[in-house]
């Protein structure tokens, strides 16, 4: 019986083919901390590092760990037990343990940096460790074992090893070959298992599902339905094989998506290239690799193992005084919850918490210039730690660029003043910080967009491939009354399984300082006009309520009970006496319809509401908890919020859950067109003048045209 090649096994990591081309990583079956099988910092021929990371140093208290710091953490842990010196422990994530918030806020450039520490999530002998390493003193200052249920974030080693174990099972291989699939074409994909009760307690497990890549790289469209193996990751053995019988494997024809191998006619006129030119170059500045200055904004941006990209210490300049005003201390996607709607034995466990189970950082692919990011973009690399503690570099992980899409920032034409011909308009130019991550079949693009009027727009765009289910049916007419409840038929032998996406953002809003913010619910209440008082019969009245505790700020959005939601600093007033603040403006959204006692929903309980506000606690950053893999839901945003702490006039964190239901359709096959959802943070402080101060784009035109337009200048927007 032929065994699949290591190259084929490597493809299992959610299709991270580009990652494997970028990094030379050949793990062993028992890859451990000192196994010598770590990632080498080797780039493919098409990628060149723009920064020499080997000598990079931190310049800001929130700068991510450098290559040198990661290597130093590794050296410190070599002498730490249990397991690191012997090679039995593995690192699952390593990131900066950020300094106390008050120290960061008080820090000024030129001051000495606060003590640098690293937080390490590790696994040793089946136990989870949360370790704090002090880089200045060179010692481990804290090692907490199993602080909650669950295990640390998975590593690439975990995924490759799970597939290797499954494919060493003679029974499993026979089931694969019985379906007519060659092992040389096999893609074995470990999938996250969730948590469904005591029978899984004390076992770190992965379920291995298979696909065939015969005649296509789009193996997601060719599932080997009806079969999976459960692997015990501690014992490295298959503990269960489920084989529900053979289901036809969907065809390969029509699944190819690579442009350079397309051979079918294109029934579309050619679109000419579009390029945004900046003759004077971009107008933003990046200092020391992470501090961004643009127009009236300053903020810190960095790559993160779990969140992918973090925006910190965002300040906007007051248009009247010129002083920088604090808006947000920290913002990032805290968790992604993707439950699939098929309760059958082969699919029930598919309910993913992507940020906490695999991490958005390691899954981030290098952004492609001129396709992912426009001309004049600035790129930032990510620096992470591999399971053996060595530093790895993710090139071009984040890009910064100015966006102009022909939109208008504001405009007005006046026709009722005879003595003046007034036509004022301004082009909308914004600054975008972008990161894209390929989490299995799905690709997510995260944009943080900054406007000169103080508004921040956060957009999540989803694309990639569906996770599909094989079926014997080729046409809806064949189904009759046997309609598959899990989703519609989207191609021959292919069911698109209905699923949800919920992305919860951590938004530590610090309006004019961290300590004195409040959450205000602004209600539109319908009032009835007394008979005879007016020709009107009803009107709307605004009433404001200040949330006193965390439960007061658990918000379910409703079109029929409209609110605005403000984070304000009641101690900082405008010249009119209004409190400084920001308003969160939800975009299109969805709510989880799963029962609250459903195991996936218990773990994803942060999707029970669209808005939450909690009292600041530096340990409460990720809505799914510190240890997410196979967690029981005992360390989630829901649990923290139910403590009902006081939040009025305090240091508070706003949480917003962006969501959408996805009912797949035929147009989603074989590749999904991008669908996007967003929300906005809009200022209530005095920044309106910033919009007026924006200069128009002017081009002088010939006098003959001037006469026709009765203008000396023509505004080209």
UniProtKB/TrEMBL annotation:
Residues 275-683 form the Copper amine oxidase catalytic domain. Topaquinone (TPQ) is generated by copper-dependent autoxidation of a specific tyrosyl residue. Residues 60-142 form the Copper amine oxidase N2-terminal domain. It is an enzyme of class 1 (oxidoreductase). The keyword Protein biosynthesis does not apply. Its cofactor is Cu cation. Signal peptide: none annotated. It holds the Pfam family Cu_amine_oxidN3. The active site is at 354 (proton acceptor), 442 (schiff-base intermediate with substrate). One of its GO terms (biological process) is response to putrescine. It comes from the Eukaryota. The modification 2',4',5'-topaquinone is found at residue 442. Contains 1 topaquinone per subunit. Transmembrane segments: none annotated. Residues 152-250 form the Copper amine oxidase N3-terminal domain. Keywords: Copper, Disulfide bond, Metal-binding, Oxidoreductase, TPQ. GO terms for molecular function: copper ion binding; primary methylamine oxidase activity; quinone binding. Its EC number is 1.4.3.-. Belongs to the copper/topaquinone oxidase family. This is Amine oxidase. The lineage of its organism: Eukaryota, Viridiplantae, Streptophyta, Embryophyta, Tracheophyta.
């Amino acid at each position: 019986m032929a065994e699949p090649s290591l190259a084929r096994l490597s493809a299992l990591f959610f299709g991270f083919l580009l990652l494997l081309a970028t990094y030379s990583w050949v793990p062993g079956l028992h890859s451990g901390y000192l196994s010598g099988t770590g990632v080498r910092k080797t780039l493919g021929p098409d990628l060149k590092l723009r920064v020499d990371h080997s000598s990079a140093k931190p310049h800001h208290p929130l700068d991510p760990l450098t290559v040198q710091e990661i290597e130093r953490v590794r050296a410190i842990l070599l002498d730490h037990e249990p397991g690191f010196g012997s090679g039995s422990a593995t690192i699952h994530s390593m990131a900066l343990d950020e300094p106390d918030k008050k120290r960061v806020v008080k820090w000024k450039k030129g001051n000495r940096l606060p003590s640098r520490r690293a937080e390490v999530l590790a696994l040793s002998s089946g136990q989870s460790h949360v370790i704090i390493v002090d880089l200045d003193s060179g010692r481990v200052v804290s090692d907490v074992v199993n602080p909650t249920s669950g295990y640390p974030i998975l590593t690439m080693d975990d995924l490759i090893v799970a597939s290797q174990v499954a494919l060493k099972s003679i029974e499993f291989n026979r089931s694969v070959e019985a379906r007519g699939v060659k092992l040389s074409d096999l893609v074995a994909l470990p999938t996250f298992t969730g948590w469904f009760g005591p029978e899984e307690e004390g076992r770190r497990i992965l379920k291995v599902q298979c696909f065939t890549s015969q005649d296509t790289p789009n193996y997601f469209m060719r599932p080997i339905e009806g079969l999976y193996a459960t692997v015990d990751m501690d014992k490295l053995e298959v503990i269960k094989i489920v084989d529900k019988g053979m289901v036809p494997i969907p065809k390969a024809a029509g699944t190819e998506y690579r442009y350079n191998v397309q051979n079918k006619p294109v029934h579309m006129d050619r679109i000419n290239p579009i390029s945004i030119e900046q003759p004077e170059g971009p107008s933003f500045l990046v200092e020391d690799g992470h501090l961004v200055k643009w127009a009236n904004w300053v903020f810190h941006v960095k790559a993160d193992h779990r969140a992918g990209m973090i925006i910190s210490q965002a300040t906007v300049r007051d248009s009247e005084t010129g002083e920088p005003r604090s808006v947000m201390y920290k913002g990032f996607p805290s968790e992604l919850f993707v439950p699939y709607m098929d309760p059958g034995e082969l699919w029930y466990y598919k309910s993913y918490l992507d940020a906490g189970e695999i991490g958005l950082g390691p899954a981030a692919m290098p952004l492609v210039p001129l396709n992912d990011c426009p001309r004049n973009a600035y790129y930032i690399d990510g620096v992470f730690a591999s399971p053996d503690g060595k530093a790895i570099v993710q090139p071009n992980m984040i890009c910064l660029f100015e966006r102009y899409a022909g939109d208008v920032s504001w405009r007005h034409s006046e026709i009722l003043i005879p003595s003046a011909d007034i036509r004022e308009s301004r082009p909308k130019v914004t600054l975008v910080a972008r990161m894209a991550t390929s989490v299995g079949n799905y690709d997510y693009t995260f944009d943080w967009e900054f406007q000169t009027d103080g508004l921040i727009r956060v957009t999540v765009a989803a694309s990639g491939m569906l996770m599909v289910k094989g079926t014997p049916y080729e046409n809806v007419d064949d189904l009759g009354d046997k309609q598959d409840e899990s989703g519609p038929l989207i191609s021959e032998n292919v069911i698109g399984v209905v699923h949800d996406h919920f992305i919860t953002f951590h938004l530590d809003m610090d309006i004019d300082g961290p300590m004195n913010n409040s959450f205000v619910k602004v209600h539109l209440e319908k009032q009835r006009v007394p008979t005879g008082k007016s020709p009107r019969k009803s009107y709307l009245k605004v009433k404001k309520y200040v949330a006193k505790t965390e439960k007061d700020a658990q918000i379910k959005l409703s079109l029929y009970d409209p609110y605005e939601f403000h984070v304000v600093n009641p101690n900082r007033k405008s010249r009119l006496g209004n409190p400084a603040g920001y308003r969160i403006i939800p975009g299109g959204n969805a709510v989880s319809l799963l029962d609250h006692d459903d195991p996936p929903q218990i773990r994803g309980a942060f999707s029970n509401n669209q808005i939450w506000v909690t009292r600041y606690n530096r340990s409460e950053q990720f809505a799914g908890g510190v240890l997410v893999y196979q967690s029981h839901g005992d360390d989630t945003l829901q649990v923290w919020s139910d403590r009902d702490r006081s939040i009025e006039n305090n240091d508070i964190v706003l949480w917003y859950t962006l969501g959408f239901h996805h009912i797949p359709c035929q147009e989603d096959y074989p590749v999904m067109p991008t669908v996007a959802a967003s929300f906005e943070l809009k200022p209530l402080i005095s920044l309106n003048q910033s919009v007026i101060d924006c200069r128009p784009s002017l081009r002088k035109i010939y006098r003959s045209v001037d006469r026709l337009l009765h203008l000396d200048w023509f505004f080209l927007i």
